[in-house]
Protein backbone atom coordinates (compact mmCIF):
# COMPACT_ATOMS: atom_id res chain seq x y z
CA UNK A 1 0.00 0.00 0.00
CA UNK A 2 1.45 3.32 -1.12
CA UNK A 3 1.35 6.06 1.49
CA UNK A 4 0.98 8.54 -1.36
CA UNK A 5 -2.34 6.96 -2.34
CA UNK A 6 -3.63 7.21 1.21
CA UNK A 7 -2.54 10.84 1.49
CA UNK A 8 -4.12 11.76 -1.85
CA UNK A 9 -7.37 10.05 -0.86
CA UNK A 10 -7.41 11.90 2.45
CA UNK A 11 -6.73 15.21 0.72
CA UNK A 12 -9.62 14.55 -1.66
CA UNK A 13 -11.84 13.79 1.32
CA UNK A 14 -10.75 16.96 3.09
CA UNK A 15 -11.45 19.11 0.02
CA UNK A 16 -14.85 17.57 -0.69
CA UNK A 17 -15.72 17.45 3.00
CA UNK A 18 -15.34 21.21 3.33
CA UNK A 19 -18.65 21.60 1.48
CA UNK A 20 -20.62 19.02 3.50
CA UNK A 21 -21.46 20.81 6.79
CA UNK A 22 -23.83 23.37 5.24
CA UNK A 23 -25.51 20.74 3.04
CA UNK A 24 -26.04 18.37 5.97
CA UNK A 25 -27.29 21.19 8.17
CA UNK A 26 -29.88 22.34 5.66
CA UNK A 27 -31.13 18.81 4.94
CA UNK A 28 -31.38 17.72 8.58
CA UNK A 29 -35.10 18.44 8.88
CA UNK A 30 -38.12 16.25 9.68
CA UNK A 31 -39.66 14.19 6.90
CA UNK A 32 -41.78 16.24 4.52
CA UNK A 33 -40.23 19.59 5.39
CA UNK A 34 -38.16 21.60 2.90
CA UNK A 35 -34.48 22.33 3.42
CA UNK A 36 -33.70 24.94 6.06
CA UNK A 37 -34.06 28.39 4.47
CA UNK A 38 -32.07 30.17 7.19
CA UNK A 39 -29.67 29.63 10.06
CA UNK A 40 -31.63 28.60 13.16
CA UNK A 41 -29.20 30.43 15.45
CA UNK A 42 -28.89 33.87 13.89
CA UNK A 43 -31.91 33.82 11.51
CA UNK A 44 -29.65 34.81 8.63
CA UNK A 45 -31.29 33.53 5.40
CA UNK A 46 -29.13 31.38 3.17
CA UNK A 47 -28.32 32.87 -0.25
CA UNK A 48 -30.40 31.58 -3.17
CA UNK A 49 -29.01 29.01 -5.58
CA UNK A 50 -25.75 27.14 -5.19
CA UNK A 51 -24.29 29.79 -2.88
CA UNK A 52 -26.76 28.78 -0.20
CA UNK A 53 -25.29 25.29 -0.05
CA UNK A 54 -21.63 26.25 0.20
CA UNK A 55 -19.73 26.13 3.50
CA UNK A 56 -19.34 29.86 4.04
CA UNK A 57 -20.60 32.72 6.17
CA UNK A 58 -20.59 33.09 9.98
CA UNK A 59 -19.53 30.06 12.00
CA UNK A 60 -23.05 29.50 13.33
CA UNK A 61 -24.41 29.24 9.77
CA UNK A 62 -22.02 26.55 8.65
CA UNK A 63 -23.60 23.76 10.63
CA UNK A 64 -21.77 21.34 12.89
CA UNK A 65 -23.56 18.13 11.97
CA UNK A 66 -20.65 16.66 9.99
CA UNK A 67 -17.50 16.55 12.17
CA UNK A 68 -14.48 18.11 10.50
CA UNK A 69 -12.27 15.58 8.80
CA UNK A 70 -14.89 12.80 8.61
CA UNK A 71 -14.72 12.44 4.84
CA UNK A 72 -10.93 12.70 4.92
CA UNK A 73 -10.73 9.76 7.34
CA UNK A 74 -13.15 7.75 5.21
CA UNK A 75 -11.06 8.49 2.12
CA UNK A 76 -7.90 7.27 3.81
CA UNK A 77 -9.65 4.14 5.04
CA UNK A 78 -10.93 3.36 1.55
CA UNK A 79 -7.43 3.70 0.15
CA UNK A 80 -6.12 1.28 2.78
CA UNK A 81 -8.92 -1.24 2.20
CA UNK A 82 -8.94 -1.18 -1.60
CA UNK A 83 -5.46 -0.15 -2.65
CA UNK A 84 -4.67 1.09 -6.18
CA UNK A 85 -7.68 -0.41 -7.97
CA UNK A 86 -9.91 1.22 -10.62
CA UNK A 87 -12.86 1.11 -8.21
CA UNK A 88 -11.18 3.38 -5.64
CA UNK A 89 -12.20 6.72 -7.25
CA UNK A 90 -15.78 5.45 -7.50
CA UNK A 91 -15.92 4.62 -3.81
CA UNK A 92 -14.27 7.92 -2.88
CA UNK A 93 -17.03 9.77 -4.72
CA UNK A 94 -19.68 7.49 -3.21
CA UNK A 95 -18.40 8.41 0.24
CA UNK A 96 -19.69 11.97 -0.23
CA UNK A 97 -23.42 11.11 -0.22
CA UNK A 98 -22.65 8.31 2.22
CA UNK A 99 -21.28 10.66 4.88
CA UNK A 100 -24.17 13.05 4.27
CA UNK A 101 -26.72 10.27 4.72
CA UNK A 102 -25.11 9.13 7.97
CA UNK A 103 -25.06 12.67 9.37
CA UNK A 104 -28.67 13.41 8.40
CA UNK A 105 -29.96 10.11 9.78
CA UNK A 106 -28.17 10.73 13.07
CA UNK A 107 -29.64 14.22 13.20
CA UNK A 108 -33.29 13.56 12.33
CA UNK A 109 -33.84 9.86 11.52
CA UNK A 110 -34.25 10.54 7.81
CA UNK A 111 -32.54 9.25 4.66
CA UNK A 112 -33.43 11.54 1.74
CA UNK A 113 -34.38 9.63 -1.41
CA UNK A 114 -32.34 11.94 -3.64
CA UNK A 115 -29.14 11.18 -1.75
CA UNK A 116 -29.84 7.44 -1.70
CA UNK A 117 -30.50 7.56 -5.45
CA UNK A 118 -27.35 9.58 -6.04
CA UNK A 119 -25.35 7.00 -4.12
CA UNK A 120 -26.86 4.03 -5.97
CA UNK A 121 -26.76 5.42 -9.50
CA UNK A 122 -23.67 7.57 -9.12
CA UNK A 123 -21.57 4.65 -7.92
CA UNK A 124 -23.48 1.82 -9.57
CA UNK A 125 -23.05 3.11 -13.12
CA UNK A 126 -19.23 3.28 -13.15
CA UNK A 127 -18.98 0.02 -11.18
CA UNK A 128 -21.13 -1.65 -13.84
CA UNK A 129 -18.84 -0.31 -16.56
CA UNK A 130 -15.79 -1.59 -14.71
CA UNK A 131 -17.28 -5.03 -14.04
CA UNK A 132 -20.13 -5.75 -16.48
CA UNK A 133 -20.06 -9.42 -15.55
CA UNK A 134 -21.11 -8.54 -12.01
CA UNK A 135 -24.26 -6.61 -12.93
CA UNK A 136 -26.52 -9.64 -12.48
CA UNK A 137 -25.24 -10.59 -9.01
CA UNK A 138 -25.31 -6.94 -7.94
CA UNK A 139 -28.94 -6.55 -8.98
CA UNK A 140 -29.81 -9.83 -7.25
CA UNK A 141 -28.10 -8.70 -4.05
CA UNK A 142 -29.96 -5.39 -4.10
CA UNK A 143 -33.31 -7.07 -4.77
CA UNK A 144 -32.85 -9.68 -2.04
CA UNK A 145 -31.74 -7.13 0.53
CA UNK A 146 -34.54 -4.76 -0.41
CA UNK A 147 -37.17 -7.51 -0.17
CA UNK A 148 -35.83 -8.68 3.17
CA UNK A 149 -35.72 -5.23 4.70
CA UNK A 150 -39.17 -4.40 3.33
CA UNK A 151 -40.56 -7.50 5.00
CA UNK A 152 -38.98 -6.42 8.30
CA UNK A 153 -40.31 -2.88 7.91
CA UNK A 154 -43.86 -4.21 7.47
CA UNK A 155 -43.79 -6.19 10.73
CA UNK A 156 -45.74 -4.83 13.74
CA UNK A 157 -43.57 -2.56 15.85
CA UNK A 158 -41.20 -2.22 12.92
CA UNK A 159 -37.75 -0.95 13.65
CA UNK A 160 -36.98 0.03 10.07
CA UNK A 161 -38.21 2.90 7.95
CA UNK A 162 -38.56 2.92 4.19
CA UNK A 163 -35.40 4.99 3.98
CA UNK A 164 -33.51 2.16 5.67
CA UNK A 165 -35.03 -0.30 3.20
CA UNK A 166 -33.91 1.75 0.21
CA UNK A 167 -30.43 2.39 1.58
CA UNK A 168 -29.96 -1.28 2.48
CA UNK A 169 -30.94 -2.31 -1.04
CA UNK A 170 -28.67 0.33 -2.59
CA UNK A 171 -25.65 -0.70 -0.53
CA UNK A 172 -26.24 -4.41 -1.17
CA UNK A 173 -26.39 -3.58 -4.88
CA UNK A 174 -23.08 -1.74 -4.76
CA UNK A 175 -21.40 -4.41 -2.63
CA UNK A 176 -22.68 -7.00 -5.09
CA UNK A 177 -20.11 -5.77 -7.59
CA UNK A 178 -17.43 -6.88 -5.13
CA UNK A 179 -19.00 -10.31 -4.61
CA UNK A 180 -21.39 -12.12 -2.30
CA UNK A 181 -18.89 -12.27 0.59
CA UNK A 182 -18.78 -8.46 0.57
CA UNK A 183 -22.59 -8.33 0.74
CA UNK A 184 -22.71 -10.81 3.62
CA UNK A 185 -19.98 -9.07 5.61
CA UNK A 186 -21.43 -5.62 4.94
CA UNK A 187 -25.00 -6.36 5.97
CA UNK A 188 -23.95 -8.65 8.81
CA UNK A 189 -21.66 -5.99 10.27
CA UNK A 190 -24.45 -3.42 10.03
CA UNK A 191 -26.73 -5.56 12.18
CA UNK A 192 -23.96 -6.29 14.67
CA UNK A 193 -23.25 -2.57 15.05
CA UNK A 194 -26.91 -1.70 15.43
CA UNK A 195 -27.37 -4.49 17.95
CA UNK A 196 -24.40 -3.26 19.95
CA UNK A 197 -25.84 0.26 20.09
CA UNK A 198 -29.27 -1.08 21.10
CA UNK A 199 -27.69 -3.14 23.88
CA UNK A 200 -25.70 -0.15 25.14
CA UNK A 201 -28.84 2.01 25.24
CA UNK A 202 -30.72 -0.75 27.04
CA UNK A 203 -28.00 -1.04 29.67
CA UNK A 204 -27.96 2.74 30.10
CA UNK A 205 -31.78 2.78 30.18
CA UNK A 206 -31.99 5.29 27.38
CA UNK A 207 -34.90 4.20 25.23
CA UNK A 208 -34.88 6.09 21.94
CA UNK A 209 -35.07 5.36 18.21
CA UNK A 210 -31.81 4.16 16.69
CA UNK A 211 -30.86 5.34 13.18
CA UNK A 212 -29.91 2.34 11.06
CA UNK A 213 -28.34 4.31 8.21
CA UNK A 214 -24.94 4.92 9.87
CA UNK A 215 -24.64 1.22 10.73
CA UNK A 216 -25.49 0.24 7.15
CA UNK A 217 -22.87 2.61 5.77
CA UNK A 218 -20.21 1.51 8.26
CA UNK A 219 -21.07 -2.08 7.42
CA UNK A 220 -20.57 -1.35 3.74
CA UNK A 221 -17.04 -0.17 4.53
CA UNK A 222 -16.45 -3.41 6.41
CA UNK A 223 -17.82 -5.35 3.45
CA UNK A 224 -15.03 -4.00 1.28
CA UNK A 225 -12.56 -5.90 3.46
CA UNK A 226 -13.99 -9.09 1.96
CA UNK A 227 -12.99 -8.05 -1.57
Automatic annotation (TrEMBL):
Task: Give every Prepilin type IV endopeptidase peptidase domain span.
Answer: 99-184
MF GO annotations:
aspartic-type endopeptidase activity; methyltransferase activity
Which residue ranges does UniProt annotate as crossing the membrane?
A: 88-108, 138-155, 167-190, 210-226
Asked if the record carries the keyword Transmembrane helix, the reply is: yes
**Cellular component per GO?**
membrane
Q: What is this protein called?
A: Leader peptidase (Prepilin peptidase)/N-methyltransferase
Q: Which UniProt keywords apply?
A: Hydrolase, Membrane, Methyltransferase, Transferase, Transmembrane, Transmembrane helix
Please give the biological process terms from Gene Ontology that the record holds.
Answer: methylation
Entry's EC annotation: 2.1.1.-, 3.4.23.43
**Does the record carry NADP as a key word?**
no
Instruction: Give the source species.
Output: Actinoplanes lobatus
Amino acid sequence: MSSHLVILSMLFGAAAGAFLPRVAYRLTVPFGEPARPACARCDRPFPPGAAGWIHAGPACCRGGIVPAGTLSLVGGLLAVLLGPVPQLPVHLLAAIPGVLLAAIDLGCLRLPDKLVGTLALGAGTPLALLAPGRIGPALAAGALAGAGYLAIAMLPGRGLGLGDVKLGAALAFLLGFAGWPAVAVGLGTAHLLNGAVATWLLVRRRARPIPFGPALLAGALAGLTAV
